[in-house]
Amino acid sequence: MAVFHGAVLDVGDTAGSLRVLHSHWLRVDSQGFVNYLSDTPPPGLAPEDDTVVRLGPDRLLIPGFIDTHIHAAQVQYTGTGTDLPLMEWLTRYAFPAERRLCSDLDRAESVYTGLVDTLLNNGTTAALYFGVLGVESSLLLARVAHDKGQRAFVGKVSMNRLAPDDYVETADQGTADAERFVLGVRELSSVAEGGAGPLPLVEPAITPRFVPCCTEPFLQQLGDLAAKHHCLIQSHAVESVDCLATVASLHPDSDEVKILNAAGLLTDRSVMAHAVHITEPQAKVFQATGTAISHCPLSNFYFAGGCLRTSALLDRGIKVGLGSDVAGGYSPRMLDAIRHTVTTHLAVASADAIAQATSPSPVHERPSGAAVRDNAVRDNAVAPGAGGPVARMDLDYKHAVWLATAGGAAALGLEDRVGRLRVGYAFDASVVNLAMFADPDPGRTPEAGWLTRFERFVHLGDDRNFDQVWVQGKQVRGGPL
């Protein structure tokens, strides 16, 4: 059991409702769940008790970040290989990097260990990983995450076409291997018992790479497998211009969302990366099925050919989390994903504003005060996917932090278990040091001062500011305060 006293970040029930609870007490039980949060000490605990972790005037307790899309093997070439469109990039860079870790397990363990260490050092307490085609290497990734104490969903990649001859599988073999992987992960993971039931530390995910690399019968087999074992599902959907063209050539009478939905792969436990080119009918399918989007703003700039209308999709009730998308995105740090989420939104809002300014239609006022045209004029080149026009103030750093915590938890089907610092939730958290981020206006209220310092950390901070990282009540990074 651990007790903390100090400032606690509450990301809120909805995006943008972030606040700081200053001078609060938080207690973690023996299973790693928060069982007390108040501005008064827990019953029976003396305020001067020397076992209390005292955060002091410069440290803030925040929920752990959740990366909803990351390719573990691709970290080998992260920061390079951004010179090609997606379909060529896969052949030139991704497939060879992944294949190497199928045959060289020593190298795989080294790569996976370095990646998990990097994520934990940057406050990423949970991640949804793409593994590789090989079962043993993907199981090794799950084992490394488990042994390092990181919460993880791990998938063995499945694909039976449009891949190199030495990095592909048949549908039947791929289904059998995927099931063997699922059972292997379930055997290794520890489980915490909380008020809402058991919470495994590491879980398997059914992982068809995407429609271009999987035939429809194979996708159906994977959908059936996910239902049989109640697994999370991850893939990519309507990601890029060249991907759309490939799908159109393979399935001229259908589209990715129809194909995935028909195979049972779009559910309330499904996370589809990117979705930049999602159409209005496809967005309705996501909303109806509870399918989540992993918004990967950095890699979208390089490969997607457009930006996601994040705030507009959130307004429709579609679940959205954030992903680093290593190595399509060159940074594994969720602080960078948070920053690029805001940058992306501002780019879309600016494009919409220009489109509205040049439209002859009349202007009315949105509730937020932003001017929007009656005919919902929006820019379709910068942000081609579904969603109405957006305004600058519709999304800021507070919304982006929510997406990296509570939004990610909802995407993973863990909205009532992780992603917030509240009673009943797993204690997945970081202690961040804000000493270098002074409030330039010392006359603010305590909460306003903490928010200002946290905002500076979001935009200027890095791994040096994470003093401690905790997962399921266990300290996995840092020393005593």
Which terms summarize this structure?
single chain; 481 residues; alpha/beta; eight-stranded parallel β-sheet
Give an overview in words.
It is a single chain. The chain is α/β, with parallel strands linked by helices and 481 residues long. The protein contains 13 helices and 20 strands. The strands form 4 sheets. Strands 1, 2, 3, 4, 5, 18, 19 and 20 form an 8-stranded mixed sheet that branches. An 8-stranded parallel sheet has the order 6-7-8-11-12-13-14-15. Strand 13, helix 8 and strand 14 form a beta-alpha-beta unit. Helix 1 crosses helix 2, helix 4 packs parallel to helix 5 and helix 11 packs across helix 12. The longest helix is centred in the last third of the chain and has 24 residues. It is globular, with a radius of gyration of 22 Å. The two termini are 17 Å apart.
